[in-house]
Amino acid sequence: MKYSKLFGKTIKESPKDEVSTNAKLLLRGGFIDKLMSGSYTLLPLGYRVKEKIEQIIREEMNKTGAEEVLMPLLHPKNIWNETGRWESAKEVMYQFKKDDKDYALSFTHEEIVMDLVRKHLSSYKDFPVKIYHFSTKFRSELRAKSGILRGREFLMKDLYSLHETEEDLDKYYWEVSDAYLKIFKRIGFDVKIVEAGGGVFTKNITHEYQVLSDSGEDTIYYCEKCEFAQNDEITEVKEADKCPKCKSLIRVGKAIEAGNIFRFGTYYSEKMNASYTDKSGEKKFPYFGSYGIGITRLIGIAVELFNDDKGIIWPKEIAPYQAHLVGLNKKADEVYQKLLDEGIEVLYDDREGVSAGQKFADCDLIGISVRLVVSDKTDNMTEWKKRTSKDSELITIEETKRRLLK
């Protein structure tokens, strides 16, 4: 992609009304645009990061046997009334009336999935069911001051599973947990599995995937050695206590939630009369679980974790392009085309009348993993520099292609 043609360029100054690092850098880097508090447009660069994250998640979800669908965002009141959440979740829902009928914009899809199941499944032979989608969620967020970490409108991957037995639900629950750990590792996050409350979803204990960060809004207590970790909303331990599992010290830290998984038992299926006939001909209710990851939130987390005084430092797996080519002479056109011919994703700064210093500054701000420079000094070579390194080196075009195709 030629930078001169890219929609959404860098801006010099941080927006005065933004306080979070992710919002400042994403806006300055040309990744997002702010419509209003808690509502952002993903510009082409931001959209590419979103696509990279979704593909990682899709691959790991598919490995668990889950199937991708797409469910509606506009929901009738009667669906939510069946579980009582029209009233109990009113504070977080966007509800409105149109032509004397009441609707809500989706903040989650448990009720919609349960309605699908009772329409399409009737026998024990149909289970287990594992379906997921990527879609927009709407939540009436009062604290929309953390950029895309906490939006009123955001992208999410939510997976839902239904099972004949509680044992099968538990088995898949932890299978998804393992998949989540793989997802976060691929993205570059070091996460802790944290016990937490269920909020407006369930009274059962749930598990969050938390990333330690000074900018986090959650407080977690965790063991310095073993896997014990709890959200402060449910914990009874204190900092410097002995871990209830291994007797090591408990630490406390700020964290950002990257994902959350829930086990509901038969609560939703009973409430909505989504039953099936078992092997003996008896009416039974399936066990239900849901599993969420905030897509736009992951973009924000990555920026909060990986940045310096120059800009963003994208992990290689989710960078919008594999390389950022800075052209300082016309030879760069040939190099750009050679890289494209190999199927390499390149952002090419081909702007004329812009200083080398400005191009390098924009390159650091945008934060793609590898910077390539073609100039009179490089002759028939390219200058290779990683975003995380101070040093650069001259390498051949063939070596450049080889490294990028690894």
Topology:
Layout: H1 21-28, E1 32-36, E2 39-42, H2 44-63, E3 67-68, E4 74-76, H3 77-81, H4 85-88, E5 94-98, E6 101-105, H5 110-120, E7 129-138, E8 153-163, H6 166-187, E9 191-196, E10 206-212, E11 218-223, E12 229-231, E13 250-265, H7 267-271, E14 276-277, E15 283-284, E16 287-294, H8 295-305, E17 307-308, E18 311-312, E19 323-327, H9 331-341, E20 346-349, H10 356-366, E21 370-374, E22 381-386, E23 393-396, H11 397-404
Parallel strand pairs: 3-7, 19-20, 19-21
Antiparallel strand pairs: 1-2, 4-6, 5-6, 7-8, 8-16, 9-10, 10-13, 11-12, 11-13, 13-16, 14-15, 17-18, 21-22, 22-23
In short:
This protein has 406 residues and is α+β, with helices and mostly antiparallel strands. The chain contains 11 helices and 23 strands.
Q: What is the tally of beta strands?
A: 23
What CATH architecture label of the largest domain applies? 2-Layer Sandwich
Number of helices: 11
CATH fold label of the largest domain: BirA Bifunctional Protein, domain 2
Number of domains: 2
CATH superfamily of the largest domain: Bira Bifunctional Protein, Domain 2
CATH class of the largest domain: Alpha Beta
Largest sheet: 9 strands, mixed
What fraction of residues sit in β-strands?
25-35%
Look at the structure and give the mean pLDDT: 95
* Structural class designation: alpha+beta
